[in-house]
Amino acid sequence: MKKFFVLLTVLLSFSMLISAQTLSEAQIRQKINEVASQMKSMQCDFTQTKNLKMLNDKLVSKGKMYYQQNNKLRWEYVSPYAYVFLLNNSKVYLKSNQHNDVIDVQQNKIFKEIARIMMNSVVGNCLNDDKDFSVKISDIANEYVANLSPLRKDMKQMFQKIILHFNKKNSTVSMVELVEKNGDKTVIELSNVQINSKIDAKVFTVD
Question: Over 90: is that where the pLDDT of 108 sits?
Fold first, then answer.
């Protein structure tokens, strides 16, 4: 019986320790915001899986992502096709083997939203879009998970929700889930992440 009470005491102490290590939503948000505010640049590889509800099929593509402060983002697909989405300030450049397009995001509402969501999701700034999203953050196992539900009508027409997964070790985004209105889901997993390493200026230009 004595051994039982000793074991029970140990288990209760361990349970209290685990509970104490679980951060509140405000604490998690603060940690993520601090990292995001110090992030000057970010580059990584990504694997994107598109789940098509109607076809019960998956489309997998791979590529590289480069981010730099002051609205610079290069989203480059390298497999199974070559395609570049490049945001440089107020301009979006789309490049494929067939043609190149230049879009002024200030004149195109849809692309402006896409560019902003991509930028903010990668960095983690979506958590601060209180006018655009209802945000719920959880401390789960080895990651923080933020569920973003759109509040604006135009956003609701595009997404049911956006789910951001943050690595606990460095409080940076490790995975993004985009759940569309029609039930399709895009999952983007980031790997080989480098923070604040130098990026060649040519990365944010189109040849």
Answer: no
Is residue 47 a contact partner of residue 174, using CB atoms and an 8 Å limit? no
Tokens, residue 10: 């140990």
Q: How many angstroms separate the CA atoms of 76 and 67, rounded?
A: 11
* pLDDT (tens digit per residue) in 115-138: 777 777 777 776 776 778 888 989
DSSP string, 47-64: EEEEEETTTTEEEEEEEE
pLDDT single digits (tens) 29-60: 888 888 888 889 999 999 999 998 777 788 99
What is the pLDDT at residue 129? 67
**Could you give the count of Cα atoms lying within 13 Å of 124 in the half-sphere of its Cβ?**
27
Six-digit token string for 44:
């990584």
Residue with tokens 């958590």: 127
pTM assigned to the model: 0.80
For the four alpha carbons of 113, 114, 119 and 124, in that order, the dihedral sign comes to: positive
**Residue 14 — φ and ψ, nearest 5°?**
-65, -40
Note the pLDDT tens digit of each residue in 145-189. 999 898 888 888 888 998 989 999 888 889 999 999 888 999 999
The secondary element (H helix, E strand) that includes residue 182 is: none
List, in order of start, the domains of the chain with CATH numbers.
Answer: 24-204 (2.50.20.10)
Question: How large is the greatest C-alpha to C-alpha distance in the chain, in angstroms?
Answer: 78
Supply the Cα-derived Rg of the chain in whole angstroms. 20
